[in-house]
Specification:
Helix content is about 50%, strand content about 10%. The protein is α/β, with parallel strands linked by helices and about 400 residues long. The chain binds nicotinamide-adenine-dinucleotide. Nicotinamide-adenine-dinucleotide binds near residues 15, 38 and 143.
């Protein structure tokens, strides 16, 4: 089984980006969307991205023209019949995805591979009604696909090894860095990044620092491109709350409990950039609030903020590894490439020292009276003991 022709279903934010990658990798690519307007917009976006990339020297004008010639649009799903890998990037709806894959199984050759770009629906659940679930897998790209190098390759219960190997090869051919992830809530990145916003919201709720101080500390001391509240405003406070609720519904544990501030913000219409106000105020897309200087928080306090959030990240990642979601080095790679984090959670753990991370979590559990929320993962306790013993 060797993929030569690619189909992409959905020409939105993700579909258009994935189609661009496939065409640039030299795969004849057909992109389908049932909405003719969305299909035309998606095709225009790819054409303009190819031209811009050539202008910025990312590839030559010849390569851009070659990629453009590889990409075709399909108003009907049936036009994807000759694809031997179809990547679905349609709306995040279980029934819609199941129906699409049932149709694709009838339309495409029996040997064709099918992949979903879902971010939150278990791959195994999408595959349940399929006739050939062994030819199905998750290929989770990150937004924007052309810039974010990570692809999480997710095995459903019945995905065949050969399928996983081939979609991994295709992801590499597209210039991406594939990592294997188990079919668990949020796969690697979305799950391991839970504490980035949740712990920041808890600190804000406790009055430890203002949102602007926490953001400044995370950028200037932690090396993050954006602080948690800047990111919440960019993503949309309402979207983030929906994701937080979906995680908590899948597993109602205290660590994943949404923070009341999120619902209050949504209630008040403070949805972020798109609403002109979130944690910050915006006019014509520009932030009005002044940048807080690093001096706004004493250095030791800024450091202690940063440490509390990255301790949360290291702990969540340790739980994920304990549960077999991925190997530690893959978690680090995924968090750096999927989210542009300056360090992966295990790199943070080692930089701070596992015994210090453990001590911080124990201190928070005791001080806030929340032993379950700040319980350390067995892998973290082991790392702390090994480090202390060595
Ligand atoms: P989007 O809304 O930008 O695009 C979805 C496209 O699907 C639209 O163009 C729509 O017309 C089309 N569509 C609607 N019904 C369809 C159908 N029956 N068949 C085919 N296409 C149909 O959404 P998106 O952000 O590109 O997300 C697509 C998928 O990718 C979702 O599963 C989402 O969870 C996942 N994802 C999104 C992101 C992100 O940051 N946006 C990141 C990773 C994964």
């Amino acid at each position: 089984m060797s993929v030569e022709r690619v189909g992409v279903v959905g020409a939105g934010t993700m579909g258009a980006g994935i189609a661009q990658l496939a065409a640039l990798a030299g795969f004849p690519t057909a992109m389908h969307d049932p909405d003719p307007g969305a299909l035309a917009t998606g095709a225009d976006r790819v054409a303009s991205a190819l031209a811009k990339g050539a202008g910025r020297g990312l590839w030559s004008a010849g390569e851009a023209a070659e990629a453009a010639s590889m990409l075709g649009t399909a108003t009907e799903l049936e036009q994807l019949a000759s694809a031997d890998l179809v990547i679905e990037a349609a709306p995040e709806d279980l029934e819609l995805k199941r129906e699409l894959f049932a149709r694709l199984e009838r339309i495409c050759d029996e040997s064709a591979l099918l992949a979903t770009n879902t971010s939150s629906i278990p791959v195994t659940r999408i595959a349940e009604p399929l006739e050939r679930p062994e030819r199905f897998a998750g290929m989770h790209f990150f937004n924007p696909p052309a810039l974010m190098r990570l692809v999480e390759v997710v095995a459903g219960d019945r995905s065949a090894d050969a399928t996983l190997e081939e979609v991994t090869r295709v992801a590499r051919a597209m210039g991406r860095e594939p990592v294997r992830a188990a079919d668990a809530p949020g796969f690697i990145v979305n799950r391991c990044n839970r504490p980035f916003s949740l712990e920041a919201l808890r600190m804000l709720g406790e009055g430890v620092a203002s949102h602007a101080q926490i953001d400044a500390a995370m950028r200037m001391r932690g090396g993050y491109r954006m602080g948690p509240f800047e990111l919440l405003d960019l993503i949309g406070v309402d979207i983030n709350l929906e994701v937080a609720r979906s995680f908590h519904a899948q597993r109602p544990i205290p660590r994943w409990e949404p923070h009341p501030i999120q619902a209050e913000m949504v209630e008040a219409g403070r949805l972020g950039r798109k609403a002109g106000r979130g944690f910050y105020e915006y006019r014509a897309g520009r932030r009005l609030d002044p940048e807080p200087g690093e001096a706004s928080l004493p250095a030791a306090e800024a450091e202690a903020i940063v440490e509390r959030i990255v301790a949360g990240l290291a702990n969540e990642a340790s739980f994920a590894v304990d549960e077999g979601v991925a190997a530690p080095e893959d978690v680090d790679t995924a968090m750096r490439l999927g989210l542009n984090h300056p360090r992966g959670p295990f790199e943070w753990r080692d930089a701070l020292g596992a015994p210090n991370v453990l001590a911080l979590l124990e201190e928070l559990a005791a001080r806030l009276g929340e032993p379950e929320r700040y319980r350390a993962a067995p892998a973290l306790v082991e790392a702390a003991q090994a480090s202390a013993g060595g």
